[in-house]
Amino acid sequence: MSVRIVSPRTLRRVMRWWPPFRAAGIRVERIADDWSAARVRMRLGRLNRNYFGTQFGGSLYSMCDPFWALLVLHRLGPGYVVWDRAAEIEYVSPGRGDVFVEFELSEERVAEIRAATADGAKALPWFDCEVRAADGTVVALVRKQLYVRRKRDAATAVA
Predict the structure, then answer these.
(1) Which residues span the domain enclosing 97?
(2) Per-residue pLDDT tens over the stretch 16-54
(3) What is the domain-level CATH number for residue 69?
(4) Count of the separate structural domains present in the chain
């Protein structure tokens, strides 16, 4: 699998028009220039409102889905394979308006992943984030597990 590396600004612009995000009212507000953080907002609208008039759970998860993998992939660089492996979501309170999520990937966490994969082994790190309402109320807790390993070079793969 080949991943085309783009700038954070370009990715943010592309995701503005990405159909799953556009239909759900999800907007990427910021991706740090060094890929260390991102902020995502979702407005409550006609297309993401559930039967009870609150944020649809699938949309709450969607707004979190790609970001840990994207941040880790870009921080590690092209010599790594990064995939989603597992996810969990816990709904804490109803989202009755706009909701937000902040992703922060520390240099220490990146160093841990590099160390765990230095010998070619896979790493299966978990990442947590909170979906919050504008007043700071926690709406959902989301956990993602990634599969990370260094790419095997062509010579090793053939042998």
Answers:
(1) 8-158
(2) 999 989 989 999 999 999 999 999 999 999 989 999 999
(3) 3.10.129.10
(4) 1
